[in-house]
């Protein structure tokens, strides 16, 4: 990418000089810093990278630089669910997709030609003129999965997971209460939403239920 980066910087310099918007030197410093990382950075993280290099620009100036960078096709602004906007390089003609860990926020890039062709075929079969697409797969990365024990309380299960009830903890009262609500060992639940606070919404058969966190903590589950 080093060569690409050099060409991109030269290309950008020509464009901003023709835009005649001033602060060319500062803008080139911002671009240099942006090209020095292959990460997907938030504005805040990017401000940190600039500080590391001794640049102390106003966040508004940096944001405008990045947005111009996006508008000119050198960067892409990505809005992954549950995360602030992120910027990444946009190398012309080089498309990729993303796996996003909903626990630690890690982003893994991938490209699969078979999947790309399949998407084009699906659009073509419907006479749909495809302009662009994004494939984002949300889940837990290998490190987060390795740290997880096989049995977890339901309140720590992630949105989108299908789990099976393995154990109900608590006294007879709690067990009776959960049984009366229809929860039994071996039942499969689908976590429809769990944002870490307030009630969880779970699918139980074809019924959607709201469960308080206290109750959810008593249901010990495993991944299906
Ligand atoms: Zn793709
Ligand atoms: Zn992770
Ligand atoms: Zn990416």
Low-confidence stretches: none
Quick one: overall form? Answer: elongated
- Give the topology string: H per helix, E per strand: HHHHEEEEHEHEEHEEEHE
The CATH homology group name of the largest domain: Winged helix-like DNA-binding domain superfamily/Winged helix DNA-binding domain
Structural Rg: 24 Å
Query: What portion of residues belong to β-strands?
Result: 15-25%
The major beta sheet can be summarized as: 6 strands, antiparallel
List ligands, each type once.
zinc ion
Q: Assembly state here?
A: single chain
Distance separating the two termini: 42 Å
The residue fraction in helices comes out at 25-40%
Report strand order across the widest sheet: 6-11-7-8-9-10
How would you portray this structure in words?
- By secondary structure, the protein is of the alpha+beta class.
- The protein folds into 3 domains: 2-89, Winged helix-like DNA-binding domain superfamily/Winged helix DNA-binding domain (Arc Repressor Mutant, subunit A), CATH 1.10.10.10; 97-145, 2-Layer Sandwich (Dna Ligase, domain 1), CATH 3.30.1490.190; 152-223, SH3 type barrels.
- Helix content is 38%, strand content 23%.
- It is built from 8 helices and 11 strands.
- The protein has helices at residues 2-19, 24-35, 43-52, 59-71, 113-125, 142-146, 172-180, 213-216, and strands spanning 75-78, 86-89, 97-101, 107-110, 136-139, 152-153, 162-168, 188-193, 200-204, 207-211, 219-223.
- The strands form 3 sheets. A 6-stranded antiparallel sheet has the order 6-11-7-8-9-10. Strands 4-3-5 form a 3-stranded mixed sheet, with no helix packed on it. A two-stranded antiparallel ribbon has the order 1-2.
- A hairpin with a 7-residue loop joins strand 1 (75-78) and strand 2.
- The radius of gyration is 24 Å and the shape is elongated.
- One zinc ion (ZN) binds at residues 95, 97, 116, 133, 135.
């Amino acid at each position: 990418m080093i060569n690409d980066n050099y060409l991109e910087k030269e290309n950008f310099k020509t464009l901003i000089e023709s835009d005649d918007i001033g602060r060319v030197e500062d803008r080139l410093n911002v671009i240099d810093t942006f090209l020095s990382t292959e990460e997907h950075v938030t504005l805040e993280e990017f401000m940190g990278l600039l500080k590391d290099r001794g640049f102390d620009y106003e966040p508004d100036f940096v944001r405008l630089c990045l947005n111009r960078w996006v508008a000119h096709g050198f960067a892409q602004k990505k809005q992954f669910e549950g995360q602030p906007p992120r910027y990444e390089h946009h190398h012309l003609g080089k498309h990729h997709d993303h796996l996003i860990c909903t626990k630690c926020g890690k982003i893994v890039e991938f490209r699969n030609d078979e999947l790309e062709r399949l998407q084009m075929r699906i659009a073509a079969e419907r006479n749909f003129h495809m302009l662009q697409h994004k494939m984002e797969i949300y889940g837990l990365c290998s490190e987060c999965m390795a740290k997880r024990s096989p049995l977890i309380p339901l309140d720590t299960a992630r949105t989108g997971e299908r789990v099976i009830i393995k154990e109900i903890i608590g006294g007879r009262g709690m067990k009776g209460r959960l049984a009366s609500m229809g929860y039994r060992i071996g039942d499969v639940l689908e976590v429809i939403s769990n944002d870490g606070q307030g009630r969880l919404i779970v699918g139980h058969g074809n019924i959607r239920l709201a469960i308080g966190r206290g109750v959810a903590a008593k249901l010990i589950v495993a991944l299906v």
